[in-house]
Amino acid sequence: MLCVRNGAVSLDGTPCGQDGFAVLAAELARRRTRQAAVDAPFSGGAAGFIGYEMGAALDRAPIAPGTFPGIPTMQFGFYDTVLSFDHAAGAVRLFAPDAASADDIVARLARPPALTARADLSWRQDTARATHLTRVRETLRYIQAGDIYQANIAARFTAERPAGLSPAALYLALRAACPAPFAAFIACGTQGAVLSASPERFMQLRTDGTVETRPIKGTRPRSDSPACDEAAKTALLASGKDRAENLMIVDLLRNDLARVADGVSVPALCALESFAHVHHLVSTVRGRLRPGLGPVDLLRASFPGGSITGAPKLRAMAIIAALEGQARGPYCGCAAWIGFDGAMDSSILIRTLTVTQTGIMAQAGGGIVADSDPAEEWDEVLTKIMPLLRATGTTTGIA
């Protein structure tokens, strides 16, 4: 297991003198073996997450203070035994290095652990509405002064961790209420976990070198009324503010990809995609990774994702640190798997709960641009976060 805690890098508990990205690349190269072609995207490799604050190690941007008990800044495990679930075919495949490893997994699956009942959480609003509105107004002043074009400002909600809480049971409740294409459960030791219902791809790398990123900017809540739901779609597609927000991040990501990829193009711009609780504008940016580079080089060039920082990225990160005043942790970082074959897929850790030894945190935010309205930005925060909070507990007093 590769972990980065408080800036110290360790591999299986042994301190390392290199940075976490260098260790990750070296371990993948060391463990890489020739594999027969398979029709599953991931049949062995590294899987884990990179917290938002790792961006400071890459670009020396300021970060806000804060600790997350039991949660490292970066964590990856290395796996040669994988269960692959094909939901379309209704099938499960087991990849293992040998028969003994396969038999061990089958035996363990025959004895599934019992999950304790999910205790309802009592969510509270750490970031007051008035505080968030003030932060948005400050961001607008930076934009009006020509300091930045956009910054993603987030708010935090927290709950105490009940005795006996099962992060796995909490995740199942989250997944049932908020199905998402990049959902993830990542255990951090015996105490902490990262639970994500993210709809957003960060970086995908195929074995042929094709790179794709799909930034999300622009949100409207869904409605049970078909007429109102269609009206929300129409309003989102027609919104100049939301399109501007998306276009700025597409341009930023084009520049990030151009650092390591050729032939960067935008095959889809501000396309409408609908999820369980919201409609989003989603764009697609593609390129081809340059020869001699790999998935970790791609992460170095692009982390953290532009859709949750702003533009220009480093200045936006500095403003975020100053205004939010506290570390984000896994939120706004990325979850990823990286195959021994060189392929990778990753998500932006939005719609994510961080379970620490003592509590649970949920965060949500939005991109602030020149014509943002502070009150509407707070409404967007609630649109994004309330389905997660309601799925896992009560939200009395949050407004």
Tell me what you see in this structure.
This protein has a seven-stranded antiparallel sheet, covered by helices on one side. Strands 9, 10, 11, 12, 18, 21 and 22 form a seven-stranded antiparallel sheet that branches. Strands 13, 14, 15, 16 and 17 form a five-stranded antiparallel sheet that branches. The mean pLDDT is 92. The chain has one domain: Anthranilate synthase (4-Layer Sandwich), CATH 3.60.120. Helix 1 runs antiparallel to helix 8, helix 4 crosses helix 10 and helix 5 crosses helix 10. It has 399 residues and is of the alpha+beta class. It starts with a strand and ends in a 5-residue tail after the last strand. The chain is built from ten helices and 23 strands. The chain is globular, with a radius of gyration of 21 Å. 45% of the residues are buried.
